[in-house]
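Support reply, case 0932

Customer input (verbatim):
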Amino acid sequence: MIESKRKYNMKLLFRVIKLISSLIIFILTLVLSYEKEYASISILPLSYILLDSIFSNKLKIKNWYSGGLIYNVALIGIFVRYVITPFVISITGDFYTSYGNYVNMVSVHSINLAVMLMILELVCIYFIFFISKIKYSKKYDFSIVSRIKSLDHKLIVVVFMLVVTPVLLLIEPRLIIPSNLFLVGENFQRAQIELENAGIFFILSRMVKPIYLIVFISFMAKKYHITHKRKFIIFSFIGVITYVGLQTSTTRWEIVFAGIIGLYLIKETFNRIPRSIILVLVFVISISFFSASMYKFSWAINNSETPIKDISIEMMNMVQNYFSGPALVANSIEMKESYSNVIDAETFFNDFAGSVPGVSKYIDQSNRINAYYNRYTGRPEGHNTQIIPMIGIGYIYFPVFPPIFTMICYWFVFKFDYRLKTISRIEYKYLYLYSGLYLAMAIGFNTQIIFTTFLQRFLPLFLLFKLNSTICLNKSNNEKSYYETRLDLTKPH
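Our regenerated output:
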């Protein structure tokens, strides 16, 4: 009872702090962007305050499904996009995106339309959350606490790991071990394969790395439950650190997600997590994250008289790029006008088929929505580093109802969040959490990223785990049946 009251008070305190900080940021954004051509962005934090308050008040019902980790990550992403992103723009005064000397100037009409689309998107997200909570509150049994189960039967998984690892090391060692661990240096090189169907090997690499983590934590958990020695928690933490190191690249989301997954699995497996472990892991992730950022912003160090200032500004602008702020949405609106004569049904088909291994080589990669977006923002052909916002894609393909893709993604946020809370096996918890984190950040990604994550990261591992479960379960049942038959034969007739 005391613990429940303490949690309630903590949630209430968090809500009050969030409301006050949002109001302060709204006022500051309004003042700093006043009389600027992008002044309408101050409506975004206000819209967030109103919608979040309405949504929170509607959910004050006993035994309501409160959501889990994936859902809470989604809420954080929404807060950053609708509150922090406009605030950052108002501080820097740098609304328009640029590449080199090329600046993407957009009209005031496009900026205002972008703000309206983002508000519509937010309304639709909260609507999906509301009906999802109603649905899963009816299904969820609050008396059941799904404790994590280690990978007991792992024949197929271990055989896969033992076969694939040496093959990948022979073909390209960087598929397993990055050229730099934790720190992205000037000499950092991505794994490169000059073979037919090279994409298959990248998929195998993404499959085998999580298996290292799952098998290792399962092994440590067994030892811990037998001896209850703290050292096995420490060993698991070292395994998580190693797993984070294996994700070292210029893709910073992978580093962050690896850390979140590692902490979650340790917490669920051992039912405790020392604070020192959290601090060390946060430190390691931060170092790796900023190392990748410094690598990407190396131009600011080499060509600037005030590198620290330029890097700070770029890091703040990065918030808009990573969470698809209003400038990126405005760019996608104007891009539609520029490329309306070439974006068609084939482009839509290519957006999805272009991510399918074995099929992608037959697809015109230049005729994909993200390729057009990068071309519009001044990137050279094939240099598709910018991500077109999800709402922008919806506006281009379905102008009657632009938030359609966002709504689909956030429907799956709750589906995966519910599965994460109710399923017990460690391998499936990893799978739903990893994919769920990408879905939770869908407002900052695009359809290509989400579909590729499902097709190349979720589906192959899901099928492998299902195969492992099926074969091992049948083997276990056969052994049990044989054992029971032997016992029956020894009975006197």
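We compared this against your earlier run and they match. Two observations from our side: The chain has two domains: 2-144+320-409, 155-299+429-483. Confidence is low (pLDDT under 50) at residues 477-493. Please reopen the case if you see a mismatch on your end.
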